[in-house]
Amino acid sequence: MADQGVEYRICPLNQLPEGGGVLAVAGEVEVGVFRVRGRVHAYENRCRHQGGPVCTGEILGRYEQVLNPDGTVIGERFNPDQLRIACPWHGWEYDLETGRCTADPGYRLRRFPVEVRDGDVFIRV
Amino acid sequence: MATRAEPRQATVISDRSFSFLANARKEAEQRGLFDVPIVDCDCHVYETTATREIARYIENPAVRRPFERYSEAMIMHAMMPGNLGDRNVAGRIKTDLDAHLPTGKYNGVHPIASGLLHSMDQMAIDYAILFPTPMLTLGTHPQPEVEVELARAYNRWLIEQVLVASPRIRTLAYLPLSDPDASVAFVEEFADRPGVLGFMVTAVRYQPIHQNRFMKVFAALNEGGLPLAFHSGPNWSDRPFEQLNRFISAHALGFPFYAMVQLTNVVINGLPERFPRIRFIFMEAGQAWVPFLIARLDNEYRQRSSEAPLLKRLPSDYIRQMFFTTQPFEHLRSAEHTRTVLEMMDGRHSLLYSSDYPHQDFDLPSQIWDLPFLTGDEKRDILGGNAMRLFGLPAPARTPSSQ
Questions:
Q1: What average pLDDT does the structure give for chain B?
Q2: Does an H or E element contain B253, and which?
Q3: CA distance A65 to A67
Q4: B residues 75..114 contacting A (CB < 8 A)
Q5: Which of B19, B134, B194, B287 has the greatest number of CB atoms lying within 10 Å of its CB?
Q6: Are β-strands A7-12 and A120-124 bridged in parallel, bridged antiparallel, or unpaired?
Q7: Which pLDDT tens digit goes with each residue over B342-374?
Q8: The complex's ipTM?
Q9: Closest by alpha carbon to B135, among B202, B198, B56, B52?
Q10: CA–CA gap between residue B43 and residue B52 (Å, rounded)
């Protein structure tokens, strides 16, 4: 992990649930720290839309529509392999692994470097 | 080799719980918005949470009885026109958490006023103009007496129980247009009550407002030089929207649809010529529909002016004298395009900031403040100056301009 900024210990990795996360206050910044498919991601708790507390939102699999080859709809389902977090203010959704807004990828959550060391999760702010 | 600095310990909030509007205060502080007079021209109360209180103000005992006896859910089911649609996108949006707004800070005032003042303080709003929520469907109620009775009770309750809490909370009183005589009586009863800045008609309704039976209502408003707002909404059950299978579709089209119907009737029937002292306001339909309607009506009028014989100018000349609330502010992909929309509707003078809080598509003042093409004075006009002039509001006490 690059040495810029201040390093904060968040919590032991085993306290970070797979497909979930914690909200932490690191200095002046609120950060959501999430564990997705074994990797840890940290984002500022600020939606790129209006600044809402995005990291406190619902985490859901991508909602997708399944089609037949002829274009008819089979049905709809949540895809648990593509987790998204929805801002509780207005519902803007972000890919939990990339931080990109799923509807408009030009928007991306502010991301912080993460390191897992000796069983603990660290971020640098 | 440099020694690694000892890590600091972050404070972990394990369940990701939060204060719903804490981030709103941060956004306002970062921009210095607590020093800018801001008037929220459209925010809402969930009045059905105070059903028992409002019931005491209902005069007709037949209408009053179910409001005295039924639960909030039963009243929504049995007494209010339906308003289909999942606003909160299957629970992704959490505006229901507003039920837990802190109320202790403003001891002695109604809890609804307390919660509202709290949210205003978080968003840096000086004045809030308050409207109901479920009652916005009452214009389609098949019993006109229910709209009249409930509207009268709501207005009296709001004035006596909620607006009394603070001069920062105002309203445009509900006008039950399904009964023109009752509406005239409403203007007489409520126009001068403390906190009332004018009147509001729900835009989702089927009484053609150009008919002669409604002219007495416009005459009463005109005599007082009063603002009249049409508050729009969606109505997924309406025939034009039955083809739409998603609420996103009905919601996107519904608000501007009903606003366009009402505004077209106002302009084409020459109501601004007949009642020039009424200040017309169109609420909660965004902005992009206004240039569209300007284009359509001007083009048609040049071809068929005999069908609008009261007009002395192009329809757009009348439209540009009207007012429009900002929420939901529609950001086009190019800021230049957004600037053009605002220029076409003379947004510097016609736009009135509105939050729509606590509804699910609310806008913070930053939505206006951050527009890159507006000057500081233009931002201040849209956020508060236009509304303060329109409604005659004094400068708010906590802003530098009043010190």
A1: 93
A2: helix B247-268
A3: 6
A4: 88-89, 91-94, 97
A5: B287
A6: antiparallel
A7: 999 999 999 999 999 999 999 999 999 999 999
A8: 0.92
A9: B202
A10: 22
